[in-house]
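FW: tagging you since you asked about this chain on Friday. Here's the raw sequence from the shared folder, copied in full. Didn't touch anything.
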Amino acid sequence: MAAQALALLREVARLEAPLEELRALHSVLQAVPLNELREQAAELRLGPLFSLLNENHREKTNLCVSILERLLQAMEPVHVARNLRVDLQRGLIHPDDSVKILTLSQIGRIIENSDAVTEILNNAELLRQIVYCIGGENLSVAKAAIKSLSRISLTQAGLEALFESNLLDDLKSVMKTNDIVRYRVYELIVEISSVSPESLNYCTTSGLVTQLLRELTGEDVLVRATCIEMVTSLAYTHHGRQYLAQEGVIDQISNIIVGADSDPFSSFYLPGFVKFFGNLAVMDSPQQICERYPIFVEKVFEMIESQDPTMIGVAVDTVGILGSNVEGKQVLQKTGTRFERLLMRVGHQSKNAPVELKIRCLDAISSLLYLPPEQQTDDLLRMTESWFSSLSRDPLELFRGISSQPFPELHCAALKVFTVSLVLLIPATLERLRQENHLHLSQDHATALQPGRKNKTPSQK
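HL: got it, structure written out here
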């Protein structure tokens, strides 16, 4: 089969209009194992295929892209980088996006190879074309370009190529294309900044991080909503959080939340700002974050009482995140009756809200109630049991009713709640369920599942 493919490839090179031969070659290549193609890699002449890409013929272009994708996989990245560099550069400016994606995928292979990546770093024009791919209309092309540049920046040489050359000017020029492209560049900068303190330093020195933060705290509410997602991504790293704190960005975000009540457009950005603090609390210390920025907790309680499903959903998600560890649970418990009312509200929404919000409520409930075995102390078990009781007058009936609804996603979410509540929290309800025939549990099983006991089945006793 490999020999047949080589013969067809030679036919394609010989003919002026090899459409039928391209179709045949495409079919044959699907049946040739990749290892056989690798054995024939030295015989593969791809120049004619790249030349056919320049013809304005849709079917030929599609066939050539598919054929090249297969054949290039059989070639070593170093060979592609050294021998096809001109074709790669042309591919990045080709009018057909499928050709650009093919080219970027090969550049991705080269970048992953430590022996080949130097060929890319030494090719300033190729790097420049990758940068300009970020500004294209096709999102897949832009994403592939961002991924390539992000990967390049993992090395010192890559950082220097991107930030200590004319490429930085090209990057800033691309940003001026439109708002969407500017956010793509910010996305790239945040990805690079998140790698290490050194990477962050390169990005801050370029001025692009400062520009992002200026937009975050600016007056445009729609821009704020977009920028906060990127800043939240940066905050996932320890060095990123340190930088944001040192620059006073976290305090600025808190102040914006404080002033949100007087801003009629705060609903555009407030959910993202609250999510930011929710993630910050879990990554650092829930107690410290909540004590230093009390407006965050206050806003979560306000949002849960909102009539806006978006606000409710964000508040529910945030409570679930905050209550996913013991320190966060204790922070919530300290709010006393306010948290009890919040739990009642979450229980109500889990029954009456649209399906998507119901699932988010159930996920939050299971997060709040779950305790790892090593943290199942009497005090924490009593606390989470009281939370379970606060969800509804009859929590078990609430979740039984939810689990009977015809939505698989609800079944799974309700099952998670049943799992944590029955096994960890409420030994007494096991007896009730047994009596009501909801669960066919023997007395031995009920005893075995009580908190603080090792879960031995009767047969193990």
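FW: The two ends are 64 Å apart (CA to CA).
HL: agreed, and Residues 438-461 have pLDDT under 50 and may be disordered.
FW: great, closing this out.
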